[in-house]
């Protein structure tokens, strides 16, 4: 799997949500609304989610394993930081 495009839409202000990213995988599949959030330990990503009937939020799309999540997080945050310079 190759991430072939990352687009960042930044938010102004002082909230915890800093930006939203869209990624393209292998030039053929896009995932929108990946949130970039400032947490207690630094920036992290939150995958697109929807509120369930029980009031909790559930990811709509997400990596199956830790290695893929870390790879996505590193690439997205790197792009966000590059565009912040």
Structural class: alpha+beta
Strand content: over 45%
What is the terminal-to-terminal distance?
28 Å
Helix percent reads 10-25%
Structure description:
The protein has 85 residues and is α+β, with helices and mostly antiparallel strands. It has a single domain, classed as Stage V sporulation protein G (Arylsulfatase, C-terminal domain, 2-Layer Sandwich). Helix content is 22%, strand content 46%. Strands 1-2-3-4 form a four-stranded antiparallel sheet, covered by helices on one side. Strands 5-6 form a two-stranded antiparallel ribbon. The longest helix has 19 residues, at 66-84. The chain is globular. One of its GO terms (biological process) is sporulation resulting in formation of a cellular spore. Keywords: Cell cycle, Cell division, Septation.
């Amino acid at each position: 799997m190759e991430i072939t495009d990352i687009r960042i839409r930044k938010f102004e202000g002082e909230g915890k949500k800093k930006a939203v990213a869209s990624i393209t995988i292998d030039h053929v599949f896009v995932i929108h609304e990946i949130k970039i959030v400032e947490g207690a330990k630094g920036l992290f990503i939150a995958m697109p989610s929807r509120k369930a009937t029980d009031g909790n939020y559930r990811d709509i799309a997400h990596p199956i394993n830790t290695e893929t999540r870390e790879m996505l997080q590193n690439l997205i945050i790197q792009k966000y930081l590059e565009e912040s310079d």
